[in-house]
Design brief:
single chain; alpha/beta; Amidase signature (AS) enzymes; 11-stranded mixed β-sheet; globular; binds glutamine; Amidase_CS; protein biosynthesis; nucleotide-binding; AS_sf; EC 6.3.5.7
Length: 459
């Protein structure tokens, strides 16, 4: 089959079902077909192409795409056409990957259900009345409904892994700094990390290899070789590997069926020759509280650029109002309630008089969490836990309860705070509701290959 045929098959699938799923905010039919034609042309000329040339992909609408709308799920960027490609977008194109379109997401990647999108929610393909996770619910739903075999997400506090878990797909948050943030709209810069989403561990590894690598345009980009993720995904050998079960990620609030499937995976690892021990990381209990100070603080600073003057939406500019009034009206109209909540929380936490008590304390907790990881990785090679405490919840159930929504990130946030690599992959269905359960694997920074080795073993 030609790349054009493959692209057409996926575009047809999108046309047939995405009205129901709503995974995409924008489908780039012409761009996709042109990219596919280019791959077919090169192949006909006998040019050597990479392993993913001609493979379609769904791109989270947080990465800039030259000439193609980028909204970040927000009204404040509605109609904005970026004049440049993110480094990740460029790398996808260079690999011959066919970008089908841009996927739905919680506004500015703030959320765990995709219900905070200004363009309406996405359904979970397993049950359209349930959430597909968030913030990257569009990408995971596109994979789970076979609208795309590959997708890209971003993970600030779990937005790749939690959607992967609740849709039965694979999602990886690479080591912080492994994938360039240039052209990725900033939410919380010290946590944000783009990464691969796929239906198999090997597909994720191939995509990982295509998007990772040093980028001089991102000052926090790591200048180190990409770990051998593809080789690890092909091996799956876990004999003698030391696996730590995080003791704190169990108990109250964890669905019985989630724990059952998680324990099955741990048993499987033991049978395959891994050495399984229990590990305690006591500071993880405070990770959620620290995250919900650090992430809003950084967001309040990052989102100051959306002032209604430079780009995107402008409201109330009738020639009589001051720039300050226009900015304020634009932000009032352009930002949704969760984004406003975060800006206010962050501004408060950073204000003089409260800075030490809130932001300062949160940074100390962040250090304690990093130390817990260091101690744990002195004893074991990887840590494992359920990705999320529960399976996909119904749309609307937690929409008015931010605390309940934030609990979806309980197990994923520590890896962001410490900058480690982490993966979620399917580990079966919960018996009580028949919905997918995710297994989370966490590896030390720069040891991303271990995720793929363990993932391939239990897949
Ligand atoms: N759900 C978390 C939040 O709302 C994580 C978001 C993310 O990883 N982008 O902040």
């Amino acid at each position: 089959t030609s790349a054009v045929e493959v692209a057409k098959a996926h575009l047809d699938r999108i046309a047939a079902i995405d009205e129901k799923v709503h995974a995409f905010l924008h489908v780039d039919t012409e761009g996709a077909l042109a990219a596919a034609r280019a791959v077919d042309g090169k192949r006909a000329k006998g040019e050597k192409l990479g392993p993913l040339a001609g493979v379609p992909l769904a791109l989270k609408d947080i990465f800039t795409t030259e000439g193609v709308p980028t909204t970040v799920g927000s009204k404040i960027l509605e109609g904005w056409i970026p004049p440049y490609d993110a480094t990740l977008t460029r790398k996808l194109k260079d690999a011959g990957i066919v970008i089908l379109g841009k996927t739905n997401m919680d506004e500015f990647a703030m959320g765990s259900s995709t219900e905070n999108s200004a363009y309406g929610p996405t359904g979970n393909p397993w049950d359209l009345t349930r959430i597909p996770g968030g913030s990257g619910g569009g990408s995971s739903a596109a994979l789970a409904s076979f609208q795309a075999p590959l997708a890209i997400g971003t993970d600030t506090g779990g937005s790749i892994r939690q959607p992967a878990a609740v849709t039965g797909t694979v999602g990886v948050k690479p080591t912080y700094g492994a994938v360039s943030r240039y052209g990725m709209v900033a939410f919380s810069s010290s946590l944000d990390q783009g990464g691969p989403c796929a239906r198999t561990v090997l597909d994720a590894a191939l995509l990982h290899e295509a998007i990772a690598g040093h980028d001089p345009l991102d000052s926090t980009s790591i200048d180190a070789p990409v770990p051998p993720v593809v080789e690890a995904a092909r091996s799956g050998d876990v004999r003698g590997l030391r696996v730590g079960v995080v003791k704190e990620f169990a108990g109250e609030g964890y669905q019985a069926g989630v724990m059952e499937r998680f324990n099955d995976s741990v048993e499987m690892l033991r049978e395959l020759g891994a050495e399984v021990v229990e590990v305690s990381c006591p500071s993880f209990t405070y990770a959620l509280a620290a995250y919900y100070l650090i992430a809003p603080s950084e967001c309040s600073s990052n989102l100051a650029r959306f002032d209604g003057l430079r780009y995107g939406l402008r409201t109330g500019d009738d020639g009589t109002r001051s720039a300050e009034e226009v900015t304020s009206l634009t932000r009032e109209a352009g930002f949704g309630p969760e984004v406003k909540r975060r800006i206010m929380l962050g501004t408060y936490a950073l204000s003089s008089g409260y800075y030490d008590a809130y932001y300062g304390s949160a940074q100390k907790v962040r250090t304690l969490i990093t130390r817990d990881f260091e101690r744990a990785f002195g004893e074991v090679d990887v840590l494992v836990s359920p990705t999320t405490p529960t399976t996909a919840f119904p749309i609307g159930e937690r929409a008015d309860d931010p605390m309940a929504m934030y609990l979806a990130d309980l197990c994923t946030i520590p890896a962001n705070l410490a900058g480690n690599a982490a993966m979620s992959l399917p580990c079966g269905l919960a018996p009580e509701d028949g919905l997918p359960v995710g297994l989370q694997i966490i590896a030390p920074a720069l040891a991303d290959d271990r995720l793929y080795r363990v993932g391939a073993a239990v897949e």
